[in-house]
Task: structure prediction
Amino acid sequence: MSDVPDLGPLPQRVTVDAEQVRRLIADQFPHLADLPIEPVANGGWDNWTFHLGSDMLVRLPSAAEYALAVDKEHRWLPTLADRLPLPIPIPVARGKPDAGYPHPWSIYRWLDGEPASSDRIADPVRFAVDLAEFLAALQAVDAAGGPRPGVHNWFRGGTLRTYGKMVEQALVELDDRVDAELVREIWATALDARWDGVDRWFHGDVAQGNLLLADGQLAAVIDFGTCGVGDPACDLAIAWTLLTADGRQAFRTRLSVDDATWARGRGWALWKTLATCSYTFDAVEDAAEFADGQRILAEIVAEYRASSVIEPRPPQ
Result:
């Protein structure tokens, strides 16, 4: 187990407000200083995000660990964009740290669309196939020289064993709210599913907020801060966290996912869902998010049982 990375402590985040962004823009990009600046609603955790005028946005990493992605994005996103079937963010300028803000930062072109959710998707199967087409194109990009899993992306694309302690901690915190024995079985199956070792590009955080819709159809994919090259199974978690059962099957078929990769993808979905449930189960204001996590966990369990031809156990 010595080759399993240590995630370390939680990042020490800094706060950023519109006035700070206005000062950074005025100092470093004075030709943009007259443009209005407004925070983006639900702009994410890793970065503070602000509208800049009508067609740009500013992204400022909220911690030193997240700032490691800035150089990566400027190096690779223009290359990836030329090879993908949907728009992705392309940086147009790179900001520097200063006395008031300690990290490098970026200006991007704004991409229109609304975050994906089950009630906004017009055709769940078409959406699933369109997303699979995007990921297939991403995986087909030459991985030579691409960023390997590391702190810059919290080891996405690496071994699931990195998150084993988090899974166990979540099970302890959730106590009898989940079937811990079955969850451990699903997790063990994912850990035992071998990767072929061929590096492929992955996004690293294919989630609702990073998939933009236009008229109910997939229109853009954003936030490549966790992208890299390695095992692309991490990008399959969306099959359980957002897709319908029919969409999940269409998604798997288009990507030609083998059983081992599918099992690892299920493991990524399980880890993410357990983490969400453990963060939200005891807070009234998070009740809806916890309920959604329980729904996703039920999807994972049901699909695992069906794929493993396991008879459901009677209630305890």
The chain is about 40% helix and 15% strand. The longest strand covers residues 47-52. The chain has two domains: 18-110, 115-308.
